[in-house]
Amino acid sequence: MIAFLRKNSFVLLLLAAFVLSDILISWWDPMVTSRRFYKNDFTKTLFHHDWQNRGPAFYGNSAVTGAYIETDSTAKLVELGLSYGKLTDLKAILEQQRFHVEGQLVVGIDVHTMIDSLDTDPTYQWFKPWYQPYVYAYRDYFRDTGTELACGLYQGLLKQDAARFEACARFPETLKLSASDPLAYQPRWIDKELYFGRKSDEDLRKKWDEYEQRFGWMTNRDFKNNLDALDFIIAYSKQQGLPLRVVWMPWNRGYKLPRYMPALQEEVNRRLQAAGVPTLDLLTAYDPKYFHDLVHLSRQEGAPVFTKEVDAWLASLAKSSK
Fold this sequence. Notes:
Rossmann fold; 3 domains; 5-stranded parallel sheet; 9% strand
């Protein structure tokens, strides 16, 4: 054993240095704590709530983010909308106790929330296996941030000599570091995407055709994982004594619903009704004038109407339970 250690001491020291440095970087958690790095919607939620990871919540995908105005709501739910968020993500959040839902849990389901194969943000914290090195898991983001830093330092050393910066030309001007302060940086965007105005009919038709090609052929077999996650959420809420409510998020009724939606909605409602979970069906309730696109309400027109309607519904449920 001693001979083996001596023979491989250099390699073992390198391995130990890597493991130690990865542990330290993981403890620092720059994907969450440093504004130099990209931030996912879950981290943005925590940031805008002073890093508090508990409270009543309105969970869903970007349709919830766009439609529910937390600051105007009387229900005072934490807007926990995640870009491309699915029920499988909520299951992971609850299992790993990344957010402790208290008071009530409202879940928004739109036409994309249940699609098993729909890609989501790979930086969500619950996707990283415990055994995977932190630097490896977020290697693309370390590379991008590191390259920006290197370009900024290089530019700073060369006193902003534009002719020498071809290798860094692909980065936005706002991300380049100054010559006077080469360690300065433009903090990463920390707000969630909202939806203003209305897209053209041509854009909406193209998007509908895209959705139809990608998802229109699906059946309930393509939602199995998320249906299983729904069962978990129902059971979890019952076990925790947590009131669960479900909102069918609005779809722009100026365009046909995806072909899979009637059967999917029927199956989801069957499970919710069996568990006594109240539902608010707004799937085709709103006029197209309230929409930014097919699945996102306009922040100016649609979101205020939606927020008031959800507030009134939740208030009626609270009153009837007394």
